[in-house]
């Protein structure tokens, strides 16, 4: 299984730039894939050498790239999947982590004692890296460790049409802490707060 992961510190910089430059706009990266029933106009040449357009030629169907982690996703409790940067208040984050709260709410918060940067959001489930499959509240989840950083991603739905089907909780430590343990606590608290679908 391969997943692409963004560290919480990188996310802080990205969010600061995107909030400063684009307000609430969101950039979605991906690759365009032509639909199976799409067609392309092919130019033809007339006797005078000028190109003209004729009937559309059928195209071969392209297999879309997979945007979700491989394997069967188990969903015991479907949750709402609207993007939200204030799933947990600073006080709720602090309670989940056993820390002192951040001064402001949002997707990215910094707690003290322990000093960690957290990223918490409903997001895409397309990430690179090695993940360990776990289960949270009956739903398929993934623990993604990269260096000292750790993320837990819980699938909120198995609907392939949903753009943001996962809850991501990432912890970047500035103190010596069990980042995966904290990420799991944070993800579980946020999962429980998201309304059922």
UniProtKB/TrEMBL annotation:
Q: Where is the signal peptide?
A: 1-27
Q: One short Pfam family name for this protein? A: DUF3558
Composition bias, Low complexity: 42-70
Give the keywords, sorted.
Signal
Q: PROSITE patterns per the record? A: PROKAR_LIPOPROTEIN
User: Superkingdom, according to UniProt?
Assistant: Bacteria
Q: Which InterPro entries match?
A: DUF3558
Annotated region described as Disordered, given as residue ranges: 40-70
Q: What is this protein called?
A: DUF3558 domain-containing protein
Q: Which organism is it from?
A: Umezawaea endophytica
Q: What does the record give as the organism's lineage?
A: Bacteria, Bacillati, Actinomycetota, Actinomycetes, Pseudonocardiales
